[in-house]
Amino acid sequence: QMQLVESGGGLVQPGGSLRLSCVASGFVVSAHDMAWYRQAQGKERELVASISTVDSTNYADFVKGRFTISRDNARNTVALQMNSLNSEDTAIYFCNARHSVYSILEYWGRGTQVTVSS
């Protein structure tokens, strides 16, 4: 069974950092473009960052310079390092995998809550 499981969310003060991790099972991340999305309450899900199978990265303007996405193919994981967090980063963060060739093969995790508050 193909599965993505996120971890690392929680409550952090403004200006703080968190590192999210996403573990894949049932498939290999090395064959998939990986991404992190987020959805704040009352808002649509939006792309935060993505990393291709050749490690090309892309970031939403609102996280550039603060977040870093990375993959570890040996551990079948993807991470999102988040620095300089602010209240607008509060959301549920979802891990996404899409096969680099057969894009119809797409998987989502259930999400991890990130709350930035003093």
Please describe what this structure looks like:
With 118 residues, the chain is mainly β. 0% of the residues lie in helices and 53% in strands. The chain is built from no helices and eleven strands. The mean pLDDT is 97.
The overall strand count is 11
Q: Compute the gyration radius: what is it?
A: 14 Å
What are the low-pLDDT stretches, counting only 5+ consecutive residues below 50? none
Mean pLDDT: 97
- In N-to-C order, the SSE pattern is EEEEEEEEEEE
Can you summarize the main beta sheet? 7 strands, mixed
Strand content: over 45%
Question: What is the general shape?
Answer: globular
* Distance, first to last CA: 40 Å
Q: Structural class of the secondary structure composition? A: mainly beta
Supply the number of helical segments.
Answer: 0
Helix residue percentage:
under 10%
Tell me the layout of helices and strands.
Blueprint: E1 3-7, E2 10-12, E3 18-25, E4 32-39, E5 46-51, E6 57-59, E7 67-72, E8 77-82, E9 91-99, E10 106-108, E11 112-116
Parallel strand pairs: 2-11
Antiparallel strand pairs: 1-3, 3-8, 4-5, 4-9, 5-6, 7-8, 9-10, 9-11
Brief digest:
The chain is mainly beta.
Give the key terms:
mainly beta; 118 residues; 4-stranded antiparallel β-sheet; 0% helix
